[in-house]
Amino acid sequence: MDYFNAFWVGGLVCVLAQILMEKTKMLPGRIMVLLVVLGTVISFLGWYEPFVEFAGAGASVPLLGFGNILMKGVKEGVQDAGFIGLFQGGFKAGAVGSSAALIFGLLAAFIFKPKMKK
User: Fold this and answer.
1) Which residue, among 62, 7, 22, 14, has the nearest Cα to 39 in the 3D structure?
2) Could you give the dihedral angle defined by the CA atoms of residues 30, 83, 88 and 68, in that order, rounded to the nearest 10 degrees?
3) Helix axes 28-44, 48-55, angle to 10 degrees
4) Model-level pTM greater than 0.85?
5) CA 68 to centroid of chain Cα atoms
6) What is the pLDDT of residues 6-24, one digit of tens each?
7) CA angle 13, 16, 20 (to 5 degrees)
8) In 3D, which of 84, 88, 12, 24 has the Cα closest to residue 55?
9) Sign of the torsion angle spanned by Cα atoms 107, 37, 48, 57
């Protein structure tokens, strides 16, 4: 049942993003930011942990999960360093995912040859 819940919740997030892309004039970058902010708000309200327990990877992998990670980092940063933790916490928490995306993107750029559409 865990796999099923992860599948349909992750799929629902993707479907909602696709609907926003097709039915509104929002650009994909703005939709991605909207999902990260939504994950941050859900985490701030304390609803994200029960959501992850129910949906597993369907909730923690998409952009909603990145917002949750940033919010957790900011909470820990404020507890450890006070006001300056507002700025440090998000960077520390999101550093691994951002670094991995940059490194794998660079490797893909070296391995594959881009082709222009005609």
Assistant:
1) 62
2) -50
3) 110
4) no
5) 7
6) 999 999 999 999 999 999 9
7) 140
8) 12
9) negative
